[in-house]
Amino acid sequence: MEAERIPELIAQIALADPRVRREDKIERRAQALMWAGILAEVPYDFAVHAAHQHYATSTWPILPAEIATRWQAVVRDRMNRHTGTFEPTAHPELDPDDITGYQAALRAERHAVVMGEQPPNELKAITAGPAADVERRMAELGTYLPPHVRDALKTYRPVAAEREQNIRAGLPDPLAVACPVDTCRARPGRPCTRPSRGHTARRLAQPHPSRTDRATAKETAA
Prior knowledge:
The protein is mainly alpha-helical. The protein has three domains: 79 residues; 37 residues, no CATH class; 92 residues, no CATH class. It is 53% helix and 4% strand. The chain is built from ten helices and two strands; from the N terminus they run αααααααααββα. It has a two-stranded antiparallel sheet. Strand 1 and strand 2 form a beta hairpin. Helix 3 crosses helix 4. It is elongated, with a radius of gyration of 31 Å. 15% of the residues are buried.
């Protein structure tokens, strides 16, 4: 915040709490200098907002350190969520060999994030996508096996191999949900069945269509 705006800030706060403003001219000048040093990095609008938040819950006079602490918490949160990854394609005007230009652009980008002029470039925005979704669904299957081990064992675990194949292909995994068919009600991870003679259940090679529909709806909502 520019030092010239400190008296304006104190006057704004004094409308809610006259105790903040010094009456003596010499003390008022010293107060402005002190606040200017403490709030040098804090935007004026944020300082006013911080005062609003303070007096919404407290009857104690606000201190400049409280405003600065609130601002530091906001900056820390933004930068913790910002990966700091710089995308050269976002700056086609820069020469690839212009190291100084790239450094200046990187500093400008970080300053824009700190000031709230652009949102943080969060990790989830980078990792989100089909590959991340596949890994999430594979993790839901349970025990992890390296790809080469899964391929070697697929003959001995056909059900699991088919589920993994569906996930890799971006298809729904019916066995991830319970079967809604009244005569089946297979639990997640178990194949569908149908009644047969002798009060036994016969395993089906393919899940019931309604179970596939349910799995599709689940993945769509995810």
